[in-house]
Structures are given as C-alpha cells and as structure tokens.
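Methods — Computational structure assignment.
A single polypeptide chain was analysed. Its primary sequence is given first, followed by the predicted tertiary structure written as structure tokens.
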Amino acid sequence: MAWTGTGTPIAGISHDLTTLAAAKEYLRAGDDDDALIANIIDRASAEIETICSRYFNTANYAGWFDGNGVQAIYLDNWPVTAVTRVSTGKLSVLGVWCNSTSITHASARVTANSLIMVHTDSTGTTTTTLAFSTYTTIAALAAQIDATGSGWGSQNMSYGTYLTTDLIELPAMYCLNQYAYLLHPYQALNDYLCEEDSGRLFYQGGFARGSQNIYVEYTGGYPTVPFDVEQACLMLVAYTYFGTTRDPALQSEKLGDYAWAAKASGGDSSFKSELTKQLSKYMRIAV
C-alpha cells in the first residue's frame, strides 16, 4: 500500500534532515548558492521521507490506520515516546445542510482548522469559513452555521461539548437540501501498550477490522536526526546540486562520501538504489 503521509504532524514542523551550514560544508560551497542549497535540502528531505514512508523529526502526530483484526498495529514515525489517544470508529456529531430552492449547489468541507461552506446561486459562488479557533465546540459551530443565512442550518445530534479541533478532515460533501455529517473519532480504547523503539501498538482485545477506522495521536520521531539519515540527505543534496551543472557525458564523480557512476548501459545511475539500500533499516516492511 502506497504511503500517503499517515501520521500527519498536528503542528507544523521542519522536515529538513540536515542544515544549510552542514550542506555547505559538505559541498564546500560559498554563500552565493544559499537559496539554491536550502531549496535542494527541502526537496532531498521530502524525497527521503517518501522513500522511507515516514517522517523523522520528533513531533506530535495524528493518523488513521486500518484495523487488522489482530492485536498490533505499527505507528509510522518511530521511535514513539508517548501515545495520548487511541480510538476506534467514527461518530457523526453534527449535520450541516443548505435548505434552499434558489441555490443550485452547496457543499461543506472540513479541514484541520475550519469548516468551509460553499454555495452557488444566480449571483455567483459564496464561501464561508468558520475557524475552529473561534468556534471551539460543536455547539458554538452549530450556532454560527444557523446564523450564516442563505439557507444554511445544522442538525443537533447532542454532542455540543465536543471539540471542533477533533473533527475528522473531510473532502467537500454535497449538502443542498440534504445533510452532510461532520465526524469525530468515536470509542476510546484503553489498556494498550506501545513499544517505543519499534512503534508497535498492542491492544489485548484486538483492533476491529476496518478501513481507516483506528485513530491514534502520539509523539514520535527522533529528537536528533540519525547520523546515517543526515548523511544520506547530504549525499542526495550533493547529487542534485552537482547535477545542475553536470556534463551529460560524465560517467562518474566523487566528493567525500558522495559518489556517482553511470551504469554500463549508459542509463540512469545506480545512485538512488544505493541510497534506498542505505536507508532500508528505517523502512517499515509490509507483512
């Protein structure tokens, strides 16, 4: 199964796996290319995250996992220093609709920070954004939906005290003259254990089978980027940096730990496959 960034950071963090100063020293570069090198670091770090199907820097993460019917699931961004929430299932906590005969289309979308309501009529399209930082509870959000006008209204489902920041992100849902439902992680699980080094989350009762039905909030990743991961990033930075000026006829080059050689067939270099091999111990092997 392809990685889709499961276990997204709750708050913005740096994904860089090395620093500008370290990269300049590795490249033996001056100050003229600082902006270029910083951009390459960003791209190289993102590529390594994709190769390994995980994030590396320590942060608070939240994500949905497939229940597998057995007692363990594996969190993506190990080592794991704390698990703060495990829930199973999804609960409808509020209905949203646009009840109107003059409107031709209406939708509601939930992002990490807001509810976005869009409706279209003969005069054009109107977008209303309700920030969760302002409307912190489901009751407050419902009251503002009802006050929006243009046919917008809510359906009370008796979960007014629930927090809006816990709403599940959802794509645009059609809600003209029909309800779209906002969802919340449902039943909390207790008595789980987590192995710090492996990120193995164990639940004696077994995780119920389902698609994206297990929600976990946890703190994971490395306080300091491991040396070999940073080294891989520096090698990729060098590969990309020197590639901006590399002679297409060049067959090989070497700078410190960075080395590159064309395949005998003249095709793409084996550099990326060697990089992947170097990072293999940080990858989760699917079973």
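Note: The two ends are 11 Å apart (CA to CA).
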